[in-house]
Amino acid sequence: MSRLVTIVTSTTLALVLWQGLVTLADLPAFILPGPGRVFETLWASRALIAHHATITGAEVLLGLALGAVLGGFSAIGLAASPMARRLIRPMMVFSQAIPVFALAPILTLWLGYGLWSKVAMALLIIYFPVTSAFFDALMRTPQHWLDLGRIMGANRHRLMWHIRVPAALPGFASGLRLAAVYAPIGAIIGEWVGASKGLGYLMLLANGRAKIDLMFAALIVLALLTLLLHAGVDRACRKWLDGKAARHGPA
Amino acid sequence: MHPTPPELVIEGSARIGDTPIFGPLRLCMPAGRWTCLLGPSGVGKTTLLRLLAGVDDVTDFTGTITASDGLALPGRMALMAQGDLLMPWLDVLGNVTLGARLRGAPRDKERALAMLNRVGLGEHARKTPEALSGGQRQRVALARTLMEDRPIVLLDEPFSALDARTRAQMQDLSAEHLMGRTVLMVTHDPAEAARLGDAIHILSESGLTDFTPPQGAPPRPVDDTETLAAQGRLLALLRAPAMP
């Protein structure tokens, strides 16, 4: 209950500051509309925004799912093979030096203006954090557990699946939590570069037509979607990934 | 425990790069007996145990590790280590049958339950390790070790994290259930060595020193006068700056 009060209070404070800025600086609506105006537009254009939000949501969820699967297997592959580590890790680090933004036009060229170029952007932006967090956790299995497994006669394969992977799931979970926040950024970049649907497209369109209120309305919806996604992923991670390692009390 | 436990001998020296870990030494672990290796931290006790277990990949060991029956060691050992090493994602029964899971062998749940009953935890089979006390967790680790049913058992300070009362209980329980196996226990606790050792050796920077264990079969009573005296002498030896 007190958490709800905190949220309501801080939201109200943010709205008051926003309106205060608009009023005191006497800003015209095409520079910064007040919150009232933005929410009016949000309500009036709810069907339009919901349509574009669905598209962006689908892109983000697909990118997140593919990134989680791909990142998960990559991390396991890297952890299992020293050869893969030597050959592929430098490549992965180098790929991080390339701004993903710069790749967006190429992805659009390759995959077209539709859904998949945005899914690929979301995937690209989350692949490294997911892989990296899971890989680091896989390389930090407590030595005693590994000793015990080897003395019990486990081969490398079983050691990986029955000890290293389950022990590293909390690391995977922290990678996924980051990914939940990054994935929408990827999708939006993709939509900016070339799209005919999605919240990023809508924001760009609204901006170009000086409909700043619509731009802000779409932005707020995007932020809410991201928060919702993060909360969902966080909850799923608690339940399925790090819950077992962290839970206390009788099961 | 079907096969007769062998006597084990480790003879040699160990180093990591240019850093000597322990000098030339010869440690004999009599068949079916409980050997305690006592020493301060950092003298290579755990390294010696890991070399025996065949899981040390970084230490250069020059020497031999032999069993009196001439058979190879892998697959004939069980380990109980510092902490209980229970997997938090498995329940108690899953932890006891971990060895079978790791070897891809069928899991004998009835036998696992029998082992849990032997250590008094039959009712806790479906609990997660977090739901258990430190002493109960260590008993699960003992049940897991018994489940492996190996003639050689390596103990690496398994009870160091327990409170005094629980530690004494675990010592009794382990001594009872591991009787007749060739056991090497690495410990820094003189009281533990004095209670449990059929043979006691002190490992220090200057090498291995043999110590005559107290009379009486282990586990010796915690208030036995001779055991307490031996504990005192062991502590004095441990504190000596350097032994000749």
From TrEMBL, chain A:
The keyword Transport applies. Gene3D superfamilies: MetI-like. Pfam families: BPD_transp_1. It is a multi-pass membrane protein. It comes from the Bacteria. One of its GO terms (biological process) is transmembrane transport. Residues 49-233 form the ABC transmembrane type-1 domain. PANTHER family: ABC TRANSPORTER PERMEASE PROTEIN HI_0355-RELATED, ALKANE SULFONATE ABC TRANSPORTER-RELATED, MEMBRANE SUBUNIT. Belongs to the binding-protein-dependent transport system permease family. This is Putative hydroxymethylpyrimidine transport system permease protein. It comes from Roseovarius lutimaris. The lineage of its organism: Bacteria, Pseudomonadati, Pseudomonadota, Alphaproteobacteria, Rhodobacterales.
TrEMBL record, chain B:
Residues 4-230 form the ABC transporter domain. It holds the Pfam family ABC_tran. Signal peptide: none annotated. The keyword ATP-binding applies. Keywords: ATP-binding, Nucleotide-binding, Transport. It comes from the Bacteria. GO terms for molecular function: ATP binding; ATP hydrolysis activity. Belongs to the ABC transporter superfamily. This is Putative hydroxymethylpyrimidine transport system ATP-binding protein. It comes from Roseovarius lutimaris.
